[in-house]
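REVIEWER CHECKLIST
Item 1: Sequence provided? yes
Item 2: Single chain? yes
Item 3: Sequence as submitted:
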Amino acid sequence: MAELEIVAEGLRFPEGPVAMGDGNVLLVEIEAGRITRVHPDGGKQVVAEPGNGPNGLALGPDGILYCVNNGGFSWIEGEGSLRPHLTAADYEGGRVERIDPATGAVETLYRSGDHGVTLRGPNDIVFDAYGGFYFTDFGKMRPRERDTTGLFYAKADGSFIAEVHHPMDAPNGIGLSPDGAILYVAETFSTRLWAFPVEAPGKLGPARHLYRPPGFTYFDSLALEACGNICVATLGAESGISIVSPEGELVEFVPTPDFFTTNLAFGGPDMRTAWITLSESGRLARMEWPRPGLRLAY
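Item 4: Structure as written out by the authors:
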């Protein structure tokens, strides 16, 4: 396995990397409430400032960024460490935003209450081949309670959003199999990876439990390899990327030097460059991956 190379530092809890065709990476800085472009040489440029808690990011069929915004956390900061804590004091609900990467214009596409849905803490997002997108709602945490939430499906034109599965225990990472027939979802606190058959756009069959690692760990975001393996960002004393086969077997574990190793995305001409967010320490890293990643729908 190739070594991890640090590309950018000083990021305020980066997540949601999107590898662009020009070699740049777009990502969210959750604590700063902004979308940032990271250049291959580590240079940084602010793209947009939606505020609160931009969390997951994806390119849509129109070339526009779609951002799921959790509404904001409170934070615990120490020397070289930044961690999300409870719900922000100015929290007003979750939302989904459209962001023009060229101009930085931010448009609210859906907010809690639209179409009768409640959005607590939208977290991660993936587009299907039909131009719609699935996203997880992690929920919000308070001193003695946390939300029970689920999965949503929405159309990119703002005309439709619906909850498609409930309940789940802090659903976080989400991704589609290479043929689009399986939706994978990682739960954070139960550290469980689930597989949902996709019967039609926005219609899921009964979930199948796929994998749970041993030990004291949590799951965060995920990405797919072209061969169908699921790569799940894993938090804990042994942080890294858990690579799980479609049959539910651990293929490999890639260790990383940050408790909050939260997201990865594939890019490069051969899709073998893995971009990994080391969120607690505010770094973006890259490494050559042993197998090609899956090209996303857009």
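Item 5: Key structural point noted by reviewer: The chain has no helices and 29 strands.
Item 6: Recommendation: ____
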